[in-house]
Structures are given as structure tokens and as C-alpha cells.
Design a protein that fits this description.
Elements: H1 2-48, H2 58-71, H3 78-96, E1 100-104, H4 110-119, E2 124-128, H5 131-140, E3 145-152, E4 156-157, H6 159-167, E5 171-179, E6 183-186, E7 196-200, H7 201-206, H8 208-214, E8 219-223, H9 226-235, E9 239-243, H10 245-251, E10 254-257, E11 267-274, E12 284-291, H11 298-308, E13 313-320, E14 328-335, H12 341-351, E15 356-364
Parallel strand pairs: 1-2, 1-3, 7-8, 7-9
Antiparallel strand pairs: 3-4, 3-11, 5-11, 6-9, 6-10, 12-14, 12-15, 13-14
Helix pairs in contact: 1-3, 2-3, 11-12
Function: Catalyzes the Claisen rearrangement of chorismate to prephenate and the decarboxylation/dehydration of prephenate to phenylpyruvate.
Keywords: Amino-acid biosynthesis, Aromatic amino acid biosynthesis, Cytoplasm, Isomerase, Lyase, Multifunctional enzyme, Phenylalanine biosynthesis
InterPro entries: ACT-like_dom_sf, ACT_dom, Chor_mutase/pphenate_deHydtase, Chorismate_II_sf, CM_dom_sf, CM_II_prokaryot, G/b/e-P-prot_chorismate_mutase, Preph_deHydtase
């Protein structure tokens, strides 16, 4: 009898909690649509004011996400609430005017995953085969933004992206840090049946120890991209692919094993490129392109103003300028926005000691 009473009490408690959750869900739904209606009103005001090209404001989104993360008291993680609000803002912006974002294709690449992480899923994601074509698509106005890889924590910089900035007028509008997790995926239900594994040559190398240990008899076949590997695994029997989550979703594959990469901290940094400058948020980064005279101490003269004005430099990378033998340009990342007084003074001092200074953009630092 006692057990029956306890069961009835537990059932009543669960029923009450479920009713409370249903009521909260209804309130959340109403608030979400109320927010969407306000977003539509914002679009109407901007359109009436003659703003028709792009309603997206990176600095505004960065400020909202930072405020949400700071106000979060749990139990949801900051990453979870930021991801939720990113998707909410993406959907609301799509009601105003959907963003067209070019990425390094084909469908299912890590660059597409980075685009979704930064903009949310309510965008028109446009796959393009080369970094050059992404720059051209944004320069021409065919896409509002592009997403390109710029460096990997284990492989170093992507030189093609840096070289593209030498010839382009585009500005950096944001950055995305993406942990590169390689997953084994297949139409099969277990990895024991896998006879061949497809992936990009670099991904195969990054998962070599895992493959040698758990699939020593499977043939490893390099293909043009991880997305192509996923496509092949979807149609060829007894095969699997190494790729990211987006590829599994696109090609209907089962993720058999997660995070099989040999280096767990493997991270790629992506840059968001656009045609417009981004306003300050208070937590920004500025990227520069500069060249110096070939004199003793020339580089020191460039870097000294940053130390003088207390500006932290987070990256410096040299590249051949292609203007002459042994002539180099430097890509530099510093903390702060170009409109910040101290950074503005430092840049004025730097400009006096270089043969060329190009500000590639000030933009919000990547969020979680």
C-alpha cells in the first residue's frame, strides 16, 4: 500500500511539473514571436531610411551574445545559451532579409560549420570551390559575407587566405574559432564492418593513430574533401568517412565514433569577410597588413609603438610581397578597435615607420 501511495505522489508531482513546463514553453513561444515581430519593425524602419543592402550588424550581435553570456546563471552552460540566441537572431534576421554567405565548399565542410556557428543556420550558405572565388563573390555583392580559413593550431597559416588580402579591398568583419573534431561516419551501424575509409589526406593524417589501432585492416583512401568522403560513404557499401557533424547531417550518415583525432586541441580559426567596417564593441581585435623598409631595426620601429601605448599583439606573420625578391609584408593582429584612442595613436606612430599600412578590419573577438 505504501508503495502505491508513493507512486501516486510521484505521478502527481510529475504531472504538475509537466504542466508547469508546458506553460513555460507557451510563454517562451509567445516571447520568441514577439521578438521576431520587433525585428520586422526594425527592418521596416531601416528600409524607410533607405537601408536596403544588408541589415546585419556584427557589433550589435556580438554585444547581445556577450550580455546574454554574462547574465546567464545556469544551469544551462554559456555555450548552450549563446548557441540558442545565435540561432534566434539568425531566424529573426532572416525575417528582415536573409544573409547570403559564401564558404569553402562543397556542402558539409568545416568552413560551412564555421559559417553556421557564426551566423546561425537561417542563412543562404553558398559553397564555392576556392578562396579566390569567395573573395570575388563578396567583392561583387553576390554574397554579403564570406567565411575563409586563416590558420590551424597544428598546421599553421593558410597562406592563400593571407595572399588574397593583398589584392582585395574587403574587410574582416568577424572571426570564428572551431575545434576540429573528426568523426567516423557510415551507413553501417558498427565500425567492425568498415573495409575502406574515405577522407581528405590531412584528416587521415590527423587520425592516423586511431585508424591504426581500431581499423588496422581497412583501406584508407584520400579524396578531395571530407564532404566528398561523406558523399562516397553514403553510396558505397562497407565504407566510412572521416568528417564533421554537418557532413553526417547532409548525407544521412550514422556517427559511429566521435572525436577520433590524434590531437584533441586541434582548432582552426576562420575569418568573416565583408564590404563594410564594423563598429566597436569593447572586446575587439584589429588586423593589419604592413610592409617596412629593408633597414636594420625596421621591424622594431614598427612594433615599438604598440608596446609604448600598451597594445597587446596577438599575432605576426610574414609573407612574400610578390613585388620583388626578399620583399616581405607582415600580417599583424592586435587587441582593440581602430577607433580606440590608444590604438589610434599607436597606428599613427606605426604609419610613420612603414612603406605601407592597410587596416584589414576591426571586429569583435570570437565568442565561445
Amino acid at each position: 500500500m505504501e508503495n502505491s501511495k508513493n507512486t501516486l505522489t510521484a505521478d502527481a508531482s510529475l504531472l504538475h511539473l509537466r504542466k508547469e513546463i508546458d506553460a513555460i514553453d507557451d510563454r517562451i513561444l509567445e516571447l520568441l514571436n514577439q521578438r521576431a515581430r520587433f525585428a520586422q519593425q526594425v527592418a521596416d524602419i531601416k528600409t524607410a531610411g533607405g537601408e536596403v543592402d544588408c541589415f546585419h550588424r556584427p557589433e550589435r550581435e556580438a554585444e547581445v551574445l556577450r550580455r546574454i553570456a554574462e547574465n546567464n546563471r545556469g544551469p544551462l552552460s554559456q555555450e548552450a545559451v549563446v548557441r540558442f540566441f545565435r540561432e534566434l537572431m539568425s531566424e529573426c534576421l532572416a525575417l528582415e532579409k536573409p544573409l547570403s554567405v559564401a564558404f569553402l565548399g562543397p556542402q558539409g565542410t568545416f568552413t560551412q560549420q564555421a559559417a553556421y556557428k557564426h551566423f546561425g543556420h537561417a542563412i543562404e550558405a553558398v559553397p564555392l570551390p576556392t578562396i579566390d572565388e569567395i573573395f570575388r563573390a563578396v567583392e561583387s555583392g553576390a554574397c554579403q559575407y564570406g567565411v575563409v580559413p586563416v590558420e590551424n593550431s597544428t598546421e599553421g597559416v593558410i597562406t592563400h587566405t593571407l595572399d588574397s588580402f593583398l589584392r582585395s579591398f574587403l574587410l574582416i568583419a568577424g572571426e570564428v574559432g572551431l575545434r576540429i573534431h573528426h568523426n567516423l561516419m557510415s551507413k553501417l551501424n558498427t565500425s567492425s564492418e568498415v573495409r575502406e575509409v574515405f577522407s581528405h589526406q590531412q584528416s587521415l593524417a590527423q587520425c592516423r593513430r586511431w585508424l591504426d589501432r581500431y581499423l588496422p585492416k581497412a583501406q584508407n583512401t584520400a579524396v578531395s574533401s571530407n564532404a566528398e568522403a561523406a558523399r562516397l560513404a553514403a553510396v558505397m557499401p562497407q565504407t566510412a568517412a572521416i568528417a564533421g557533424d554537418v557532413a553526417a547531417e547532409l548525407y544521412g550518415l550514422n556517427v559511429l565514433e566521435r572525436n577520433i583525432e590524434d590531437e584533441p586541441d586541434n582548432t582552426t580559426r576562420f575569418l568573416v569577410i565583408g564590404r563594410n567596417s564594423v563598429g566597436p564593441t569593447g572586446n575587439d581585435k584589429t588586423s593589419l597588413l604592413l610592409s617596412t623598409r629593408n633597414n636594420p631595426g625596421a621591424l622594431y620601429a614598427v612594433l615599438e609603438p604598440f608596446a609604448k601605448y600598451g597594445i597587446s599583439m596577438t599575432k605576426i606573420e610574414s609573407r612574400p610581397s610578390r613585388r620583388g625578391a626578399w620583399d616581405y609584408v607582415f600580417f599583424v593582429d592586435v587587441e582593440g578597435h581602430r577607433d580606440d584612442p590608444r590604438l589610434a595613436e599607436a597606428l599613427n606612430a606605426v604609419e610613420k615607420n612603414v612603406t605601407m599600412l592597410k587596416i584589414l578590419g576591426s571586429y569583435p573577438r570570437a565568442s565561445c
